[in-house]
């Protein structure tokens, strides 16, 4: 298989700039590529392209929730290096950050979602009805007024990215506690006052993030052709 082709887009640069401003004490980067066909390819190619030069000894591992993380074979997980991956069609995306001791960043998530997934067609179930709350569907037009399927895709990707952003804090939680935290993607709910810069949580997810010491989860999003690319930063304060 040929190497994925890096995607250079103003939207990606702007999104990365927003993330750096949000986590002022953290080195943080985004990358997106086209020309790959599998999640395995996503992991292998992106990990080598993003992390190998700076961290040649690191390897990719997965936790029990299948979330990827980078580890040193001799010392285990690299706690200060956060990594999140996503794929959609032949597009791949990665977000990684080096969190310094004084950084509020404790978790990072990224998700790609194609607008076509939320297009309404005869004989096809409306995915927005299935995957988004009534409040979220009402909020959608304010995100991308000229493209409702893209707005729905953005909201769904925000839920996925928020869920992914809890992976690292959850691994640390289980090292210290026996209590199981049960929550899923649907427990992350986009709330109108926090539409652009945060996420509301209901029930199980709210209790879980509080237990893990997460003060809030900030959302940043952009349009990559006909896809939504969304990042979520879990912050301790």
Explain this structure.
The chain is an alpha+beta fold and 237 residues long. The chain has helices at 10-22, 39-51, 127-131, 134-139, 148-165, 167-176, 204-211, and strands at 5-6, 26-34, 59-62, 68-72, 76-77, 81-88, 91-99, 105-114, 188-189, 200-201, 216-224, 227-235. The termini are far apart. The model has no long low-confidence stretch (mean pLDDT 86).
Which helices and strands appear, and what pairs or packs with what?
Blueprint: E1 5-6, H1 10-22, E2 26-34, H2 39-51, E3 59-62, E4 68-72, E5 76-77, E6 81-88, E7 91-99, E8 105-114, H3 127-131, H4 134-139, H5 148-165, H6 167-176, E9 188-189, E10 200-201, H7 204-211, E11 216-224, E12 227-235
Antiparallel strand pairs: 1-2, 2-7, 3-4, 4-5, 6-7, 8-12, 9-10, 11-12
> What is the architecture at the second tier of CATH?
Alpha-Beta Complex
Number of beta strands: 12
Q: Structural class, please? A: alpha+beta
Ranges where pLDDT stays below 50 over 5 or more residues in a row are: none
Strand percentage, roughly? 25-35%
| CATH top level assignment | Alpha Beta
CATH topology description: Ribosomal Protein L22, Chain A
| Radius of gyration computed on alpha carbons | 17 Å
Strand order of the largest sheet: 1-2-7-6
Q: The biggest beta sheet, please?
A: 4 strands, antiparallel
Shape: globular
**How many individual domains?**
1
* Multimeric organization: single chain
């Amino acid at each position: 298989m040929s190497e994925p082709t890096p995607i250079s887009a103003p939207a990606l640069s702007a999104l990365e700039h927003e993330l750096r401003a949000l986590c002022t004490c953290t080195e943080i980067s985004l990358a997106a590529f086209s020309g790959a066909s599998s999640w395995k390819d996503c992991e292998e190619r992106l990990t080598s392209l993003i992390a190998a030069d700076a961290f040649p000894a690191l390897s990719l591992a997965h936790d029990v929730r299948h979330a990827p993380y980078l580890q040193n074979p001799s010392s285990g997980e690299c706690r200060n290096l956060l990594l999140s991956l996503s794929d959609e069609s032949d597009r791949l995306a990665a977000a990684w950050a080096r969190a310094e001791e004084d950084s509020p960043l404790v978790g990072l998530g990224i998700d790609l979602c194609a607008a076509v997934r939320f297009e309404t067609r005869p004989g096809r179930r409306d995915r927005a009805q299935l995957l988004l709350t009534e409040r979220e569907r009402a909020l959608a037009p304010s995100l991308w007024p000229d493209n409702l399927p893209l707005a729905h895709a953005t909201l769904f990707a925000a839920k996925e990215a928020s869920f992914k952003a809890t992976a690292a804090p959850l691994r640390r939680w289980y090292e210290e506690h026996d209590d199981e935290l049960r929550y899923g993607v649907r427990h992350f709910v986009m709330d109108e006052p926090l539409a652009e810069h945060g996420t509301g949580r209901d029930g199980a997810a709210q209790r879980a993030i509080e237990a893990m010491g997460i003060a809030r989860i900030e959302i940043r999003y952009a349009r990559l052709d006909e896809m939504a690319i969304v990042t979520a930063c879990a912050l301790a304060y």
